Amino acid sequence: MGDYLAAGLFYNQCKEKGLEGKDGCKMPGQQEDIQAIHNVFRALYRAWDQGDGKAYSEFFTPDADYVTFFGEHLKGRSEIDSAHQALWDGPLRGSKMIADLREMKLRFISPDMAIAHATGAVMMRWQKKAPASRDSINTNVLVRQNGEWKIAAFHNCRIKKLNGLIRLLFHLK
Questions:
Q1: Rounded distance, CA 125 to CA 93, Å?
Q2: In whole angstroms, what is the distance from residue 148 CA to residue 167 CA?
Q3: Mean pLDDT over all residues of the chain?
Q4: For the chain, which terminal residue's Cβ has fewer other Cβ atoms within 10 angstroms, N or C?
């Protein structure tokens, strides 16, 4: 409990100084955790590129919640594995995950819990470049279990520009 209290106090101090989420406001030892989380995503992308549902699902907690960009809710590693393997054996065969970890937004809620917002796109096997229409953003809740970072919750959605009617209705620029 003391670690969570310290993390909360540290976070509040960062927020008050306007440094929330910035490099100048990291808890001691946090750089190693950032690197470890980046390594989770590097390995996750590698499993995607290899079309390996079992390997892909291992980066999630056993009871993980996974919401696809279609809105389907997968529960646990087994469902994450089988749903993705079906895609890689079918329409996403040979696809590659295109993502840049430098664009990841990472925020520590406690020493053992973090939220990561990542962007990426799937490049189909016949494409030389992933089209912007496939750009997605995902929200990940990561937890440290037995010294390893795992994804406990994942939610994915397409990045879309708002059309003119929506902008007009909501007075957006």
A1: 7
A2: 43
A3: 86
A4: C
Q: Taking the alpha carbons of 20, 23, 24, 27 in that order, is the dihedral positive or negative? A: positive
How far is Cα 88 from Cα 82, in angstroms, rounded to an integer? 10
The DSSP bridge partners found for residue 75 are: 65
Locate 18 and state its tokens.
Answer: 């306007």
Segment 121-156, tens digit of pLDDT: 999 999 999 888 888 999 999 999 999 999 999 999
Q: Say yes or no to pLDDT of 166 above 60.
A: yes
CB 32 within 8 A of CB 101: no
Q: Is the dihedral of CA 54, 67, 129, 90 positive or negative?
A: positive
* Alpha carbon distances (Å) from 41 to 159, 161, 172: 20, 26, 34
For residue 148, the 8-state DSSP code is E
Over residues 52-85, the pLDDT tens digits come to 999 999 999 999 999 998 899 999 999 999 999 9
